[in-house]
Amino acid sequence: MTRINFLSGVIDKMIGVNGNGELKEPLLRNSGSIAVSVPEAVQNGDGKVRSITFKVNGISCASCAVSIESALGGLNGIRSVMVSPLLGQAVVKYVPELISTEAIKEAVEDAGFEVEDFPEQEIEVCRLRIKGMACTSCSESIERALLMVDGVKKAVVGLALEEAKIHFDPSVTDIKHIVSAVEDAGFGADVISSGNDANKVQLKLEDLNSPEDAMIIQSSLEALDGVSSVEVDWKENKVTICYEPDLIGPRSLIKCAEEAGDGSKKYSASLYNPPNRRESESLAETQMYRDQFLLSALFSVPVFLFSMVLPMLHPYGDWLDIKVYNMLTVGMLLRWIFCTPVQFIVGRRFYSGSYHALRRKSANMDVLVALGTNAAYWYSVYIAIKALLSHTFVGQDFFETSAMLILFILLGKYLEVVAKGKTSDALAKLTELTPDTAYLITLDKDGNTISETEISTQLIQRNDIIKIVPGAKVPVDGIVIDGQSHVNESMITGEAKPIAKKPGDKVIGGTVNENGCILVKATHVGSETALSQIVQLVESAQLARAPVQKLADQISKVFVPIVVLAAVITWLVWFVPGEVGLYPRSWIPEDMDAFELALQFGISVLVVACPCALGLATPTAVMVATGKGATQGVLIKGGNALEKAHKVKTVVFDKTGTLTLGKPNVVSAVLFSTVPMEEFCDLAIAAEVNSEHPIAKAVVEHARRLRTNYGSETEQIPEIKDFEVHPGAGVSGKVGKNVVMVGNKRLMRSFGVPESDEVERYVTEVEQLARTCVLVGLNGKIIGAFAVTDPVKPEAGRVIAYLHSMGISTVMLTGDNWATAEAIGKEVGIGKVFAETVPLGKADKIKELQLKGMAVAMVGDGINDSPALAAADVGMAIGAGTDVAIEAADIVLIKSSLEDVVTAIDLSRKTISRIRLNYVWALGYNILGMPIAAGVLFPFTGIRLPPWLAGACMAASSISVVCSSLLLQSYKKPLHVEYA
């Protein structure tokens, strides 16, 4: 039978919701669609599996989806087919070596359906770690370089995250060419992941001495079911394997590699864990800047002493004025000697950065620093040579300007990378929650323990039995099969209150077992665990640009050329009038002339206006906010959602599962006909068992209980045909020759089913009690009904009141009847209620509110909420809701608590406020510093900004911005409801 299979996974299946049944899907999937799937029919084929998503017109019901699945499922090379009747979308996994995308399209069209939005190319995604970015213009340059590569469709580069995400056509280009494009642009690049890295393992091999040994192991591994690709590097003694976790796991792969020999030769294999590149590279970058700063200080501090300290300490500094030859003094020669290593060895990175920036026709911080330091250095060299050749020349060198400028810039960069490393602390804490080892239990057929082995967490396979002792962390997502305990799930839910766990309950990797010993059957491992996918989602969010960052991007494109022009104008404004005597000679310091004074002003302008801080203002704040949100139970899908949420003026709530607990209970069942209760229950179960709606599940559960009282529990439920979902109304189908309808009054009216006085009286009584009436129709007549109640969430009233205090209006939008909706609305404090609304009608209501100029947030949890979630400015999905809602939403509230609606909006407001403050810090230094650096105050106060001090100000602006963003780490949610 067809089963619902959504692409993003239900967080309810992962956390805090107890129940029976095994988990089938991961928390999040890469695809952006929803689907109904049939069980996978794995074909023979060793090629890499790819996925393709396209629209299908003409799907009117679930049987149409089944027709498409059947047409494609029989083709060789098709691994799985998922078709969504709701969205009219298909997702097909296939082996390219066995079947082409064109053949897939033709098969769907041959089945009588029209294909739309069929991708012309197969798109893969890879992520790269980028080295050497200094400011926003660097990230833009890399994006331009990547987009110029044939086959690259989309490229996003995150400055703060130092990563790039590239969508490309693998038939046109590959990752090697993409990395080369980044390197040609003057930056370093390392591959973090490619599209098929989700289930990949690397093994370290021993006793591998020749290519023949490599071939033996490769062929043995490729022969295993579930292995899609094998790459052996016999020189490095490593093998990389892509596999299907449903069919095989790392322990089986290790065993196969070790047994690959013919008996005369044995191999040894072990799991290979590459070093954490992000941590190692971050540490290496920090050490590099520290070492460069210390090396610079070794030479710059003496220059500073020789030029600005000792000459003021008579007679201790008099020896610096001793002539070496002609007018060249000891002090000038020492400053030249000590400055040169700083300029050309320590400062080499600025030359390299400038060269690559100018080659790609852009300009960045390196260009400004190189211009400023070279102007000071080469002018000083000119002064020194002139003094060497002249008997009378007296001039002032600026070697200390060049050396001290580089020193302060490196100090600033060192402090900046240290601070930037702390912006991802929240995310790092999440990734460290999983334990390194676990106890693997082997059970006999009677459930007795045969053996207990301590293994690496990375070697756990699906369906393994893991023993978790008191105080230990749960290594993977799974189901408790034995024992009882309390588990602290605060790392996901934010609630420190331990949750009781018994056999059949779900546990999530990274949570802490408080007291009892439990046995857990692993259901999700590796990248499929809830924790791994939360981390992946937050990383993707941190990479995405917020719209507010466009301001910085636009400014940075023209900023550097404008600064260079401003520096030249500053030099001319001071030099020309000084030469012609337009300002008093007394303005010029004794040891300078007009040219030198103008040069210092020009260099100061060049350096103080560097736009580094501008590029860090938004991404650092978004990084901290999304990481902090994840630890608070609020998953924000990118800077766009974060920015939009602060504008929200109206929050629209769904009712069932959102304002209410979403666990409806049937409180009564009545018959309006002579149909036996057993048959009545059978018809209701047959119709509702295929529905995912919470009310449908409650009806099925109650009907089954009733059925045990009236008939045999083991009797087979009749099969329904022509099953059809009527969004917002109910379901219908045929049981034998009988037409069965289960739903609300609207469904009955749409089928022309009359309502007797008895039925109307019952429905009115039920609705007045704020309950939902589910009617059961048979062959055009209502034969009975269920009264369903769904308690309001305890925090709902306080959340609504708090939103009103924030100046945000609230609306309820539900498919339920008016009487129930208005009763619930009155109970929680929502005045504006729209009831009996179909899913597309919900989206229309959202659009109506938007047309009034309101920024609207929609909070929902069900399939019928997904159009409204997509239509709203900000969609917020309750974490325990359906996968469709989670996928369509911009923000996921993991704990299923309404208080996090307030948290999401408040965190957004705080973050946007912080970004604006960051812009003040970033532009404030420039706006205030540039006029002072240009000498505006000098004629009146004698105050000027030496170039080295300008460099310190520039560094301080970047540090101020990052530290400002880090203050978001102290964020505390404004509303916290205590539960009884």
TrEMBL record:
Transmembrane segments: 293-313, 325-346, 367-389, 401-419, 558-577, 597-618, 919-942, 948-968
A GO CC term attached to the entry: membrane
SUPFAM superfamilies, alphabetized: Calcium ATPase, transduction domain A, Calcium ATPase, transmembrane domain M, HAD-like, HMA, heavy metal-associated domain
Domain HMA, residue spans: 50-116, 124-190, 199-265
A Pfam family the protein falls into: E1-E2_ATPase
Lineage, uppermost ranks: Eukaryota, Viridiplantae, Streptophyta, Embryophyta, Tracheophyta
Name under which the protein is recorded: P-type Cu(+) transporter
Family: Belongs to the cation transport ATPase (P-type) (TC 3.A.3) family. Type IB subfamily.
Membrane topology reported for the UniProt record: Multi-pass membrane protein
